[in-house]
Give the backbone structure.
Amino acid sequence: MQEVKSKKINRKTNNVIPFIPEGEFYFTKGVEAFQKRKFDVAVKWMKKAVEFAPKEPLYQCQLSIVYTEIGAYHAANQVLTKVLQFTGDEYTDCYYLLANNYAHLGLLNDAKKYVESYLNNEPDGDFHEEAHSLLEMLDIDDSDEDEWDMDEEDELLIYQETVFNHMENMEWDKVLPLLEEMMTLFPEHKMIEHDYTQALFYNGFQEDAIKMELDALTEDPNDLCSHTNLAIYYFERDNKEYTNHIQALLNVYSIHEQLKLKIATTLARTKFYQEAYKRFKTLSKGRLKGHPSYYRWFSIAAFHIGETDKAKKLWDEGCKLHSSLKRETHPCKL
């Protein structure tokens, strides 16, 4: 998928900025860091700009662009959703930026809805060429022409961001009630059910979780999410049936980064470390910096195949980006 290129990134950077701690100063410093590809620094400056002027949509959109650049697509979408909530249709660039992020995440239907919304609002906008190119790339069946309820999509996005954070940090007790609500509110989103079985399994309802995934496989024997979940569930219950589901994954090479990560982590969690390590090496770290699971399982796989320096480097980097990892025990620290 194409990378976001902000057409507003050079705004006012040629002027001499006095040392006044105002939003414009912080914003300009963030732009300078972004242009130098010092993304962690750019995030810090942009956050300061947003804190100083929380109702300035440009600052928040630029913060989202930095997040996109480092692969923190969920964080980027969370920022953009807030902008839409307080600006309505006034800052329509958000629709294109959201579409681009959803495309990166492999959520192509959502990406198409947002890019079409952008083009409907801004047919000649700053991103109209990129939007048309993105729309051409989203080869999606147009049979579903139901009216898009933006309020419902916003609500779904907020749920998704919260669930993602809880699941990445393995906070299963917190995520279970949220997923139950989501299945009631958004029954058409089948991926929610796969997340729900994980929450069930790790909250002690293991038989229920397995039954749900087996039922899903009956409907679709090629459901990769069911295979990944069942591989983990059976492995953790010392049931050799897990190997059958691993075999279903070994010849799968998805084009979607999120599914590639899911398969790689599943292989690592079931001790197929060599195969997991190969899969992790094909992933784009830049797109997955927002995922603690990337650092957790990539480093564990590296450790178990003897790449201890690589494992330590990955773990240390992950801990710097995700404070939750610092509370975990890693084999290279034992």
Summary: DSSP finds 18 helices and no strands in the chain. Confidence is low (pLDDT under 50) at residues 1-19, 140-148. Residues 23-138 form a domain with the Serine Threonine Protein Phosphatase 5, Tetratricopeptide repeat fold (CATH 1.25.40.10). The radius of gyration is 21 Å.
